[in-house]
Amino acid sequence: MALDKMENVSSKVTVPRGEIVEFEGVPLTKPIYSTLDRLCKFKARPDDLLIATYAKAGTTWTQEIVDMIQQNGDVEKCRRDTTYRRHPFLEWSIPEPPALRYSGLELAEAMPSPRTIKTHLPVQLVPPSFWEQNCKIIYVARNAKDNLVSYYHFHRMNKGLPEPGTWEEFMEKFMTGKVLWGSWHDHVKGWWKAKNKHRILYLFYEDMKENPKKEIQKIMKFLEKDLNQEVLNKILHNTSFEVMKENPMANYTKEFQGVMDHSVSPFMRKGAVGDWKNYFTVAQNEKFDEDYKKKMSDTSLVFRTEL
């Protein structure tokens, strides 16, 4: 269906809140759970690029940077379609209503090479073929406090996700890993460990905010692309938060009007480091830090919560 037609239809469609089913301790939506068999058998190709993140850790931003690099800074080419369709969201599935139907798996299978695919899956649930084909993977991690705040607001505005409850309740769920895609702690640690064995470029959201040029150059090097200074500056400009926030091909305003309510909270909300300070009470912060220390005691992974 043409995008504009889909827009008109989807704005009238409302969806029930997503329901959660656990698989090996990882909460997933029912549609994702029902495609796990197919997901496991997914055939990755050697030239696939996988962009992996915990939800709300700078995924769309990274996708846009990667696409700009692959298209040699050609803005028009990068606006050929929405992020959601340029880079199949591997495990995401909306079986109905028909106006909103989406299958990341089907989209990826039908796509010509080279493909760039997105996932929020923890490392242990990634289809084995990605490891067998030795695919390149870019993983982006964001500090837990800002990630939690962003994820909370995303739940508030996205009806495809479970009801978040109060800030207090959602924080509790996040700390115990009872949120979609599971424990943040396990997610970032699992991928951190995997980078020693596989072709994984592990990036930090905070570094990307502090020095985007340097991180874009890292991605270029990883993708074996050599672009001149002028193109690099173009990519820097077009992937800035301000420009992306206004880009309908990246800000999720072009699809899902019945699912995402940007009046509750925009999909691209602040893109800041340290926003957690506006939400955590002193007591919550102490509780979170204590829990965090325990769960992160077995890793060399270090995050910055402010710049």
Automatic annotation (TrEMBL):
All copies of domain Sulfotransferase, residue ranges: 46-299
InterPro entries named in the record: P-loop_NTPase (IPR027417), Sulfotransferase_dom (IPR000863)
GO annotations of cellular component type: cytoplasm
EC number(s) on file: 2.8.2.-
Enzyme class: transferase
Subcellular location: Cytoplasm
One term of GO molecular function: sulfotransferase activity
UniProt keywords, alphabetically: Cytoplasm, Transferase
Pfam family, one: Sulfotransfer_1
Family under the similarity heading: Belongs to the sulfotransferase 1 family.
Protein name: Sulfotransferase
Organism whose genome encodes this protein: Dryobates pubescens (Downy woodpecker)
